[in-house]
Design goal:
Layout (H helix, E strand, L loop, with lengths): L1 E6 L5 H13 L4 E6 L7 H9 L17 H5 L3 E4 L15 E4 L13 H26 L2
Helix pairs in contact: 1-4, 2-4
Length: 140
């Protein structure tokens, strides 16, 4: 099974989702993430994922065009994670499209480091619940 997580920057939500999904699904799924305007992986995403036992150091932000063609051609699920911005769109004949709207935890420069971290933790924890429910729904 191939699962793609998408948001705009591929810097926080989709990176967190990719890392958690790889941890939760293991060998039962091939998981990637991408963005319509990729930036760089937010260091706070890496920090909260490290707390969860997931290392994002090898992760990098990428566009849809940078994904392996064989992965894209055999996609089963495209899961968009945007809430307040315009989500990226990807045409696929085979993939079922799901939308899990989550606010972007990044860009809150008026908050303390601990407050920003809590936003990222909240995103991570919400995604973990959604992914565990999704795994149960798929009976994996």
């Amino acid at each position: 099974m191939n699962i793609l997580f998408m948001c705009v920057a591929n810097s926080a939500r989709s990176q967190i989702a990719e890392g958690l999904a790889k941890q939760i699904f293991g060998e039962k799924a091939s998981v990637e993430s991408a963005g319509s305007l990729p930036k760089k992986v937010n260091p706070l995403a890496g920090e909260v994922m490290k707390e969860a036992g997931v290392d994002l150091q090898a992760h990098f932000s990428k566009s849809i065009e940078e994904l392996r063609p064989e992965f894209v051609e055999s996609l089963n699920y495209i899961i968009t994670l945007c809430a307040e911005e315009v989500c990226p769109v990807m045409a696929s004949v085979t993939a079922k499209k799901l939308h899990w709207p989550l606010p972007d935890p990044a860009g809150h420069t008026n908050l303390s480091h601990q407050e920003q971290l809590q936003l990222f933790r909240d995103t991570r924890d919400a995604l973990r619940i959604k992914l565990l429910d999704f795994k149960a729904e798929l009976k994996l």
